Amino acid sequence: MLIDIFHDFACPWCWIGKKHLFDAIAQWHGEAVRIRWHPFLLDNSIPPEGYEFRSFMQVRKGIAAAALQQMFDRTHKAGEKAGVKLDFNKISLAVNTTLAHQLVTLTPENLKITLVEAIYRAYFENDRNLGDLETLISIGNAVGINPDKLRNFLNSRALVNSVIAESAFARLNGITSVPLFIFNNKVRVDGSHSVEVFKRAMTRAGLMEKSNAWRVGSRESGVGNRERVVSGK
User: Where are the alpha helices (DSSP H) in 96-233?
Assistant: First the structure.
């Protein structure tokens, strides 16, 4: 089963959704699963050094400090329930995640899942700046990627442009928020839903694949035409 994941490392709901999906995969008894990771840059205008986190989030959400804290508390509880640690009190920077998505692109397939997990932890648990080159090299090196090769590739303007273009293409094809999961190019789940929702989506996609009842693929454009199991956080 092919699962396309559209996400951003600055999005706590993406990490929660990832955790729920992989818990569902652990209970899946169907065909083997293959993951494709797709960047969705929430704000590519943030400079490499980042912005002060809370003031940035207040402006972005258009809410007062107290309301922002309530939002963080709700998200923290959702993460705790899923088994994901979200330490908003520790986070000091709003970050540009382009380098982080470049690193995923460069990483061998057998290491991508481990790397993605390491990047989410680096930001939400350890307040590391994902816009900093040396930080990303350190994260990559920790999962077994040669740091010298990483430094050369992460400095590539072509790769930066590729990540930005893929994110822009997702928006042009109807994706307006993340996380978003597409199963076998047939079933779409918007948001970080429960393990049971993801299990149902996988079962549905598997059945559709076997029956050939749903004709969708490279001849059709966009992602909006997939069967939508559920949407919303």
Answer: 98-106, 109-124, 133-142, 147-154, 157-172, 195-211
Tell which residue, 183, 164, 165, 163, has the closest CA to residue 223.
183
Q: How far is CA 168 from CA 6, 13, 67, 179, 195, in A?
A: 12, 20, 31, 15, 29
Q: How far apart are the first and last CA of the chain?
A: 24
CA distances for 5 relative to 15, 182, 211, angstroms = 11, 7, 24
Task: Compute the distance between CA of residue 88 and CA of residue 198 in angstroms, rounded to an integer.
Answer: 27
84-89 average pLDDT score: 95
Checking if the pLDDT of 40 tops 80, the result is: yes
Domains of the chain: 1-40+177-233 (3.40.30), 46-172 (3.40.30.10)
User: What span, in angstroms and rounded, lies between the C-alpha atoms of 225 and 136?
Assistant: 36
Parallel, antiparallel, or unpaired: how do β-strands 227-230 and 2-7 relate? unpaired
Decide the pairing of beta strands 51-52 and 93-94.
Answer: antiparallel
Number of neighbouring beta carbons within 10 Å of residue 218? 6
Token match 């430094």: residue? 151
> What pTM does this model have?
0.90
Rounded-to-integer distance, Cα 95 and Cα 231, Å: 27
